[in-house]
């Protein structure tokens, strides 16, 4: 028996394509302007962080939606949670370990030192409560996602199974709020005890650390809860939410620029306000994108980028960009040569990602759907 097929949602493809495009634009600046630290270039580089935040919120929205469907079954059992985890692991782990192995092989070939913390990558603890090692740096976000998939779903199932015949959606929301509050307590501890000298220090010791960032995914749980509860309201006001999200995002960064808010001088802002407001502004975009109905120009390209986005994210920086920087002295190249390097970067990233998707990721997903159907 063949597993049922599911049609793709254009809005989700657009959000995934947007997220990975922001990451690529950010990384391209390191090829075009290797020595530049101007405000404009720094702004483009921050887009990569925004792209990852969009992936986080989108992941939370999708996972939260799946959990809402699961918990509404009449006789909820722990086996449903185990099946959820198995589907998640078959979605995320194979690509992760494949690219980790490729990074190790390339490191041996080019003479890069393998970090002593390598064993931690197998348990996703290399950045659990400390900075991520300088190896396969994209892995920091995967650690956050894997632990986010464990913590809150377990609490949701525990509360619902423990309090039978109670309001399941309410317990879903309550669990989410409780976990976010606990994680905020950890952020407060960081704020009062940490000392950073620049954005890089803050990013390494806070933005890319599991225990401080899981809430970025859980904001997606809140978004899906309210959008499922009040679907007509959000569809009717989708354009207003879109404008509001763009305004919030723009105003937030204008305030940072005008008042020169830096992590070393306004740590509280970057710990307790900035990332939360970024996630909130991104959430406001969802009603518009998720209610896209008409075909857009370049739909096939958007779908291509979306389906390969996970592979693109894993390979574009450590496997492709860093090795280009290792082989080519970008500082001596002119504009034409740098443009060609960028095209090479995009071409190699696309080819490698496409091969991984077609001959590794997609077959595993088909196997997953046969073994553990929705």
Automatic annotation (TrEMBL):
GO MF terms held by the record: acyltransferase activity
UniProt keyword terms in alphabetical order: Acyltransferase, Membrane, Transferase, Transmembrane, Transmembrane helix
Pfam families: Acyl_transf_3 (PF01757)
Residues that span the membrane, as ranges: 12-34, 46-72, 93-114, 147-163, 170-190, 210-227, 239-262, 268-290, 310-328, 340-360
Entry keyword Phosphoprotein: no
Domain Acyltransferase stretches: 10-356
Protein name (record): Acyltransferase
């Amino acid at each position: 028996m063949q597993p049922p097929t599911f049609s793709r949602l254009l809005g989700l493809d657009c959000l995934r394509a947007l997220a990975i495009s922001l990451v690529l634009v950010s990384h391209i600046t390191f090829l075009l302007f290797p020595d530049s630290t101007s405000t404009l270039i720094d702004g483009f580089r921050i887009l990569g962080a925004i792209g990852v935040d969009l992936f986080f919120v989108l992941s939370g929205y999708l996972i939260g939606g799946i959990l809402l469907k699961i918990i509404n079954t009449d006789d909820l059992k722990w086996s449903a949670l185990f099946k959820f985890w198995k589907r998640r692991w078959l979605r995320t782990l194979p690509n992760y370990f494949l690219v980790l192995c490729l990074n190790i092989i390339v490191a041996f070939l080019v003479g890069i030192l393998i970090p002593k913390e390598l064993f931690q990558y197998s348990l996703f603890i290399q950045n659990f409560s400390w900075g991520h090692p300088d190896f396969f740096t994209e892995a920091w976000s995967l650690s956050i996602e894997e632990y986010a998939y464990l913590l809150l779903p377990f609490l949701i199932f525990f509360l619902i199974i423990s309090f039978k015949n109670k309001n399941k959606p309410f317990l879903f929301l309550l669990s989410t709020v409780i976990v976010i509050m606990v994680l905020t307590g950890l952020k407060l501890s960081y704020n009062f005890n940490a000392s950073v000298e620049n954005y890089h220090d803050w990013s390494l010791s806070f933005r890319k650390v599991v225990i401080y960032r899981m809430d970025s995914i859980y904001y997606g749980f809140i978004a899906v809860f309210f959008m499922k509860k009040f679907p007509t309201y959000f569809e009717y006001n989708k354009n207003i939410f879109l404008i509001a999200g763009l305004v919030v995002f723009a105003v937030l960064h204008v305030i940072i620029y005008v008042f020169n808010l830096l992590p070393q001088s306004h740590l509280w802002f970057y710990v307790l306000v900035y990332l939360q407001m970024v996630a909130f502004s991104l959430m406001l975009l969802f009603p518009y994108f998720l209610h896209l109905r008409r075909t857009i120009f370049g739909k096939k390209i958007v779908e291509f980028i979306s389906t390969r986005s996970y592979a693109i994210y894993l390979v574009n920086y450590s496997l492709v960009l860093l090795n280009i920087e290792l082989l080519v002295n970008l500082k001596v190249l002119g504009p034409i040569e740098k443009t060609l390097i960028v095209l090479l970067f995009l071409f190699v990233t696309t080819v490698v990602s496409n091969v991984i998707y077609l001959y590794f990721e997609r077959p595993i997903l088909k196997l997953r759907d046969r073994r553990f159907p929705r």
